Amino acid sequence: MKIVVFVCNWCYPMVQDLEILNPITQSLNHSITLIRVMCSGRITPFLILKAFELGADGVIGIGCPDEACHYGNGNKQAKENFEKAFALLHLLGIGRERIGFEQISPDDHGKLKEIIHSFIEAIKV
Questions:
Q1: How confident is the model at residue 20 (pLDDT cuts 50, 70, 90)?
Q2: What pTM was computed for the model?
């Protein structure tokens, strides 16, 4: 299974991600690709659709909490972009469980692992 995870540069330390995700990838036999973006609001519907076109089984975005966005309303824009992408994917027969957006703060150590594991479990069903 191929999962693409777009992560806001400001909401989660990427070095931690590699340490957390290596065991998940190896134990579950999944390919997880992390893509850092400067703001979750920059995750456009085009990027989400492109990930599916290139073979992703699921796409999830990770952004800052509402009150902590470095760019003001980037996380709100991201939510709208994911909803627009879902509407397009729905027309293609791709279910809601295969796309998601979550918000975490830099202090939520281990939360990314939980989010990705839950996302993978939802896609399996």
A1: low
A2: 0.86
